[in-house]
Design a protein that fits this description.
It contains 10 helices and 8 strands. It is α/β, with parallel strands linked by helices. A 4-stranded parallel β-sheet has the order 2-1-3-4, with helices on one face. It has a 4-stranded parallel β-sheet with strand order 6-5-7-8, with helices on both faces. It is globular, with a radius of gyration of 22 Å. The chain binds zinc ion. Zinc ion binds near residues 140, 206 and 228.
């Protein structure tokens, strides 16, 4: 090949990469965890933003005005769904002036639609007296990497639909990402299998853990919140303590954005350990497998395995 030919090819390469940069699919995810999974699946084909910090309670995110601007330029908005973000996301979607990412829009994706199994789907009538009830099912599914794997597959399909030129890449990547997540899940599950029945008993602060409990075969003895989103009364705290003593529960598990006072008191009175974990991936510095691994490690240490 001639020297000129080489230069022309190099220039074409530069142009192609500029073109790629422009064509990146702009993804906004409501949590750092969803952002991390979208980043794993999309790789260099996507540009991902997390709308909330891992230290924020995903039920009550501060809908800052700059998020409206982000959503105005977003091609794909990824949410947990199951009403987790019902207190803050609909307003942002309305203000964003981007119908694609509004409810029913092509660029709006609720990740729970990828799941084969939902915990705690309500039957019968639901009212607010039952607390912050998510009637469609418990929305805290990403604490289970098996659910994360299903979401990866679902996101692969969605990205393929939005960016058909790269469809095969998304689908292939999603499969390998899902396999990685599942294998992390299997490793931890095997470790927890060595614990005795007594060592498997935990108390939760919020009802955030049905999927994680199922993944690691743990048993929830009580929740500190009597109902999701309802602060514990002294009478309920006394009940939890009694149950902890009766069952020998070894750990109280909660996310870092919940108040710790009651959990601290309960764990010291019952001789259990308080396990405080992040509620979402620290997107950009941590991967999803590292995140679920971190929670499993902390729990395993507390349960005395
Ligand atoms: Zn919740």
């Amino acid at each position: 090949m001639s020297f000129t030919g080489v230069i022309v090819l190099a220039l074409l390469g530069v142009l192609a990469s500029v073109g790629d940069a422009k064509a990146k699919v702009r993804v906004a995810a409501t949590t750092g965890t969803l952002a991390a999974i979208a980043g794993d699946v999309g790789g260099e084909l996507v540009e991902v933003t997390a709308l909330s910090a891992p230290t924020e309670d995903p039920h009550y995110v501060d809908a800052r005005p700059n998020l409206v601007l982000t959503l105005n330029h977003t091609d794909l908005l990824v949410a947990t769904g199951l009403e987790l973000e019902v207190g803050w996301l609909p307003n942002l979607q309305k203000s964003a002036r981007n119908p694609e990412i509004g409810p029913g829009g092509r660029g709006y994706y609720e990740a729970h639609t990828a799941l084969s199994h939902l915990a705690e789907v309500a039957t019968g009538r639901v009212d607010r007296a039952q607390g912050d009830i998510h009637a469609g099912g418990n929305p805290h599914y990403l604490y289970d990497p098996r659910a994360g794997a299903e979401v990866a597959i679902g996101l692969g399909t969605k990205l393929a639909e939005l960016d058909p030129a790269n469809a095969a890449t998304y689908v292939t990547r999603a499969q390998s990402v899902a396999a990685k997540y599942r294998s992390v899940g299997e490793t931890q599950r095997a470790r927890f299998a060595a614990l005795s029945a007594e060592q498997r008993r935990v108390v939760s602060y919020h009802a955030s853990w049905p999927y994680l409990l199922d993944w690691l075969a743990l048993e929830q003895v009580e929740t500190v919140e009597p109902k999701p989103g309802i602060a514990p009364s002294p009478a309920h705290v006394a009940t939890v303590l009694q149950r902890m003593r009766a069952t020998g529960a070894k750990a109280v598990l909660q996310e870092e954005f919940y108040p710790r006072g009651t959990s601290e008191k309960l764990s010291s009175l019952a001789g259990a350990k308080l396990v405080v974990v992040p509620g979402a991936v620290r997107f950009g510095t941590q991967t999803y497998p590292e995140f679920v691994g971190q929670i499993a490690e902390a729990l395993h240490a507390a349960l005395g395995g």
